[in-house]
Amino acid sequence: RLATIAKQKERIAKELQEHLAKLSNFVQHWQPPIDGYLLLNAINECVIHGQKRLKEEFQYKKEMLNLDWNDHQLLKKFYELKPNEELIQLAQHLWEITADEQKTKEQQQILEQRIYLKRLPPKIDQMIDQLLDDDNRTILYNRFK
User: Fold this and answer.
1) 3-state class of 131 per DSSP?
2) Are 111 and 132 in contact (CB under 8 A)?
3) H or E segment and range at residue 41
4) Which of 107, 113, 112 is nearest to 139 (CA)?
């Protein structure tokens, strides 16, 4: 696997050098003339931005994989304790409540972000906050009924 990665890295570096040479040749012949240094910096910024996004996606997927593994281990340990049917149902209910709570928090964050980006008037912000508070109270009340 490491050998394959090393070969891919070498191939990409070689192709990059070839494309840079072609770009340099094209820049010299373009009309009106283009500053090659400026163009190179613009390309580098685009690549860096793309790599940053890919790195963030990779980190997110890596973190989710770790969380999934942890969840699996916890479930395995729970069932190794050989709980009775009542405990299993209680645990499943607790897991559903926790999942619902997390979904609600995520939806609230998304809504808050949308509101912030649209810069709504303060009265509308207060109205939405009140609705969210009422919704959260209702959810909590129904959970512990």
Assistant:
1) helix
2) yes
3) helix 36-80
4) 107
List the pLDDT tens digit at each of the 145 positions of the chain: 788 989 999 999 999 888 888 877 777 777 677 777 777 788 888 888 878 888 888 999 999 999 999 999 999 999 999 999 999 999 999 999 999 999 899 888 888 877 777 666 677 767 777 777 776 666 655 655 5
Helix (H, G, I), strand (E, B) or coil at 79: helix
CA atoms within 13 A on the CB side of 98: 6
- CA 16 – CA 37 distance, rounded (Å): 16
Structure token pair of residue 82: 């050989």
Q: How far apart are CA 140 and CA 71, in angstroms?
A: 24
